[in-house]
Amino acid sequence: MDWNKLISQFLNGDTDAIQAVFTVAGFFVGIVGTFFVARSFSQQTKINLQQYELNRIAGEKHRRVIRPNFQIEPINEGLTLIGFRLKLTNAIALNIRLYSCDAMGNKTSELLSSHNAWEPGEQSKIYPINKEAVLNDVNKFAELCYDDEDGTKYFQELKRRANEIYVTFPILS
Fold first, then answer.
1. Nearest residue to 88 via CA among 159, 30, 152, 167
2. Which of 13, 39, 40, 160 is most buried as measured by Cβ atoms within 10 A of its Cβ?
3. Domain extent for 105
């Protein structure tokens, strides 16, 4: 094919030459278009991954904002630890259940059964500590189970170390 002859015929208005030139031009435009589509697809994939990460972070932040957290207040009689009181901090807790644990750390009896809801700052009555657990120096003496506002279930273990009692950080159950 003689390109000079084709261009000359194109400039003179020859329909076959016009079709040939625009076919070649369409081919190159198609190549460039394919390149830009592939490039935009790659960018869109990166944007989707970033959006997914932002959504995950926002969900985690929301869960932390509405996650209830209980603190424990030991009740002493002289130097002897006789019980504890729970205090809710941070957010509303629903379906609260408190279980006493035996010397092996297994749930035995329910001290608080499915209390509807607590507001932050609300305190419980005084619960006695399982004397068998205290005498045997058991690590876990009670377990607290509850839900947050979205229905996510958590539990916290109430533990004893030496003469101190503490509650673990909320754990998803």
1. 167
2. 160
3. 68-172
Q: How many residues does the chain have?
A: 173
- One domain, residues 75 and 58: no
CATH number at residue 120: 2.60.40
Identity of residue 104:
M
Q: Record the pTM.
A: 0.64
- Residues 4-46 pLDDT 10s: 887 888 888 888 888 888 888 999 999 999 988 888 888 999 9
3-state per-residue secondary structure call for the chain: CCHHHHHHHHHCCCHHHHHHHHHHHHHHHHHHHHHHHHHHHHHHHHHHHHHHHHHHHHHHHHHHHHCCEEEEEEEEECCEEEEEEEEEECCCEEEEEEEEECCCCCEEEEEEEEEEEECCCCEEEEEECCHHHHHCCCCEEEEEEEECCCCCEEEEEEEEECCEEEECCCEEC
Torsion of CA 109, 113, 114, 116, to 10 degrees: -150
- Find the largest Cα–Cα distance for the chain: 112
